[in-house]
Amino acid sequence: MQLSSNHLLGIKELSPADISLILDTAVQFKEVLQRPVKKVPSLRDITIVNLFYENSTRTRISFELAEKRLGADTINFSASGSSVSKGETLLDTVNNILSMKVDMVVMRHSASGAPHFLARHLPATAIVNAGDGINEHPTQALLDAFSIKEKIGALEGKKILLIGDIMHSRVALSNIYLLKKMGAEVMVSGPPTLIPPYIKEAMDVQVEYNLKKALQWCDVANVLRIQLERQNQVLFSSLREYNLAYGVTRKLLEEVGKEIVIMHPGPINRGVEIDSDVADSGQSIILQQVENGVAVRMAVLYLLAGVKPEQN
Q1: Is residue 223 a contact partner of residue 271, using CB atoms and an 8 Å limit?
Q2: Which residues of 87-116 are buried (b: 16+ CB within 10 A; e: fewer)?
Q3: Peptide bond preceding 267: is omega within 30 degrees of 0, i.e. cis?
Q4: pTM for the whole thing?
Q5: 160 closest CA partner among 307, 261, 34, 75
Q6: Residue 1 within a domain
Q7: How many CB atoms lie within 10 A of CB 232?
Q8: Is the domain of 116 the same as that of 160?
Q9: Which residues lie closer than 8 Å to 35 by C-beta, 6 or more apart?
Q10: CA 162/CA 175 separation, integer angstroms
Q11: Less CB within 10 Å around the terminal CB: N or C of the chain?
């Protein structure tokens, strides 16, 4: 089986069958990662460039590790210290890299739609979106879904809550697309200023501004970071006030009185959106998300390498 596209630009473009194929393939690669020798030569003849125009820790390391585990040759590019600082355009940068016979580009960019732009101009090269502006972060949604399935079973019919800065979160958007495609129920909760007014009708999700009520509803709570770097105006009074109203605390979970799976895509702002005694508790699968990210990204790279036009 193969994906319906040569690229992974967003969850919006994937079919439920594509999503299931990636998650099923990730199961096999997670088994590989449990072995004493954690490498397979699946992408031995493939060269991948990691093109990061934004700072990243977890996503970049996860992709690099996935590539190395698959035996690919990797090139790491950072915008700082490159010709980008001299005025070189995105397309010129990539064309120069591709002239070195690169097979795949993993890209993170602050501009929404940048990976789509590349895919239009470089259709024969597989483009993987590692996060574009406030648009999407597809591999994060895939690893979140994989982690939920691993913990509580199938996604269909499960109640998933996204808490926090929905307005500016590409993780939220990709999660909503994926969860709805796979039959889950989705609710968002957070300050009214951080939740898009159109989201209930446009994306068929529930909105609950009372966090306690939202937690009583859900099976899984995915806690999101406040995207201060993407906010161009003050949208809530203070971090302290945010924590009091929307922080996931041990006291609040005890009041809810039910077992909820706690997730967070990272980086965590401890004491703001989530307290340490929740993030580090037995209910949390945050570190499992990080571990599963490598297996999911291995699956994505492996499947995309298999559908390149010249290999069909």
Answers
A1: no
A2: eeebeebbeebbeeebbbbbbbbeeebbbb
A3: yes
A4: 0.93
A5: 261
A6: no
A7: 5
A8: no
A9: none
A10: 9
A11: C
Each residue's pLDDT tens digit, 182-229: 999 999 999 999 999 999 999 999 999 999 999 999 999 999 988 655
By three-state DSSP, how is residue 31 classified? helix
User: What separation in angstroms does the CA of 240 have from each of 126, 161, 232, 236?
Assistant: 44, 22, 20, 10
Using 50, 70 and 90 to split pLDDT, how confident is the model at 124? confident
Question: Could you tell me if residue 257 is inside a domain?
Answer: yes
Residue 5 lies in a domain: no
pLDDT value, residue 231: 47
Which tokens is 230 given? Answer: 């993407």
- Half-sphere exposure of residue 277, counting CA atoms within 13 Å on the CB side? 6
Q: Quote the CA–CA distance of 141 and 162 in Å, as a whole number.
A: 12
Q: What is the dihedral of CA 160, 163, 166, 170, to 10 degrees?
A: -70
Pairing state of beta strands 104-109 and 206-207?
unpaired
**CATH code of residue 174:** 3.40.50.1370
3-class DSSP state of 41: coil
Nearest to 42 by CA among 262, 310, 295, 309: 295
As a whole number, mean pLDDT of residues 81-98 equals 72
- Cα separation, 134 vs 256, whole angstroms: 32
* Residue 224 contacts residue 266 (beta carbons within 8 Å): no
Q: What is the C-alpha separation between 279 and 263, in angstroms, rounded?
A: 8
Same domain for 131 and 157, yes or no, is no
HEC sequence for 269-284: CECCCECHHHHCCCCE
Give residue 279's domain range: 138-286
Burial 17-54 (b: 16+ CB within 10 A, else e): ebbbbbbebbeebbebbeeeeeebebbeebbbbbbbbb
Structure tokens, 103: 């097979």
